[in-house]
Amino acid sequence: MPPSSPALVSVDWGTSAFRARLAAADGSALDAIEAEVGATGLASGAHEAFLEAQIGAWRRRFPDLPIVMSGMVGSRQGWVEAPYAPCPAGAAEIAAAMTPVPTTRIGRVFVVPGLSARDARGAPDVMRGEETQILGALAASGRADGLFVLPGTHSKWARVEAGRIVDFATFMTGEVFAALKDHTLLGRLMTPPDGSDAASAADAFARGLAASAALDRPGDLLHAIFMTRTLGLFHELPPHALADYLSGLLIGAEILAGAGGARAAIVVGSPALAARYRAAGEALGVALSPAADHCATLGQIALLKTLGAL
User: Fold this and answer.
1) Which domain holds residue 34?
2) 268 FRET partner, CA 20 to 30 A, in 40, 104, 277, 294?
3) d(CA 106, CA 51)
4) Same structural domain for residues 127 and 190?
């Protein structure tokens, strides 16, 4: 197949956004569609019609292309629940657990399952969508081992050995940051950044990172969070920089815990967020290298190749 020929419809459908790419076999996008419509926000029975409205033109031109979806679309609150595959799991195990979705108008649709794992204390953890991105990062880099961080609302740190995700841990960094900033007294002294003093914002972020590195006991983070308010009250940080202090504190605590003593990892995420994590990692002695673009599509391609469908 020529490099510019479409090989699949790649769909990354999360809690808050829909992203679809008409992709070639090398992962490059021939066309793309985005919508701020989450998979968990649609009524039962509405997903197929929404998907057809978004990609119907592609489907009419290329009726035989497989459609592969990953993310929260496969959750219990999504279109159809794709049961979690247990770790350790690589492309073979994940591909074998892909869930076909019966449709009346758009043909073959496959949903990638999430993964489950248990931590050292036996508590369960889950991911949906990140497993596909990790497979894509592995395919793009040619690696079979490594530590991967996928920052976001619920950041994931995953360890890969011999091409299989052997364990991972979730950190609610993004969601906790938003909740503290928008729904507690910490936000009352904050003002939005106006771009006039980027240096003070960077200094505040660094101060938060330093505070995270100084944490000794489990409860110390709760104390350091309150300093977001007192540093503002005593004018030790300007109002527009307080959110950066809080961000640095939470991201720093996550990196130190997630890395677990490792000095390097691969970061998979949007360029802006990945850059923020890379800066934080550098300050804390953890080198975070960026992954390739569009890892979700690359991971879906790897799964189709494993199934012999590409």
Assistant:
1) 6-142
2) 40
3) 9
4) no
